[in-house]
Design a protein that fits this description.
Elements: H1 13-25, E1 37-38, E2 44-48, H2 56-59, H3 67-78, E3 82-83, E4 95-96, E5 99-103, H4 116-131, E6 138-142, H5 144-153, E7 168-170, E8 176-180, H6 185-189, H7 195-209
Parallel strand pairs: 2-5, 2-6, 6-8
Antiparallel strand pairs: 1-5, 3-4, 7-8
């Protein structure tokens, strides 16, 4: 199950209908559950919300082709967690180092708003992915929905770990859960999240990871 859902995953009828609509409208797009990016041997797993309609849903790689990816992947490069040149497409040769990127919900939702039952339906894939990462040390949740999905996947009570930007807390499995506001254009335009705030989160994660 760690490989994620298949291209025609039927679990969420609303997302299936949305996917089929865009398969007809944009047949050259990915229009399927978006697989994770990076190696299972990574010590850092970054969990976002869901694929963007014209980003990952189009390109087939998480955070690729939209503003959130511009900021995320530039930051990963800054902290030597990626190599190559990010070119906003899945075949750009860009590679992650000791880092893996996924989403709490693998299919694009209308208006970028997955429903609770859709988040729950996809959580088993996150459970399996985490279980398949033997060296995992830190999970970075981008936003409150991803934060909640990680806690559910790891069997933790959400009330015990409220979302807080910049927080890093140890869970009972020994994994550290780090929180950041999502690197969306809306959050950066409204300065809920600045580049400096985002980089500060990664600086602390890099410190916690230490040497390979």
């Amino acid at each position: 199950m760690s490989e994620g859902p298949g291209p025609d995953c039927p679990r969420c009828p609303r997302l299936v209908e949305f996917r089929e609509r865009y398969r007809r409208a944009e047949p050259r797009w990915h229009n399927a559950p978006v697989p994770s990016f990076g190696e299972l041997t990574a010590r850092l797993l970054i969990v976002g919300l869901a694929p963007g309609l014209k980003g990952a849903n189009r390109t087939g790689r998480p955070f690729t082709g939209d503003y959130a990816g511009d900021l995320l992947y530039a930051t990963l490069e800054t902290f030597e967690l990626a190599t190559g040149t990010y070119g906003e497409r899945a075949d750009d040769g860009f590679r992650l180092r000791d880092c893996r990127v996924t989403n709490a919900v693998r299919c694009v939702p209308p208006e970028n708003k997955p429903e609770p039952k859709e988040i729950a339906a996809c959580n088993g894939f996150l459970v399996a992915e985490i279980a398949a990462m033997p060296r995992l040390k830190v999970v970075l949740a981008l936003g409150a929905i991803a934060h909640g999905a990680v806690l559910t996947a790891l069997g933790e009570r959400k009330s015990a770990f409220p979302f807080k930007h910049g927080a890093i807390r140890a869970l009972k499995t020994g994994v550290l859960l780090a929180d950041s506001y999502h690197c969306s254009r809306y959050n950066t335009n409204t300065r809920v999240l600045t580049t400096e705030m985002f980089e500060a989160v990664f600086a602390e994660i890099r410190r916690r990871l230490g040497a390979g």
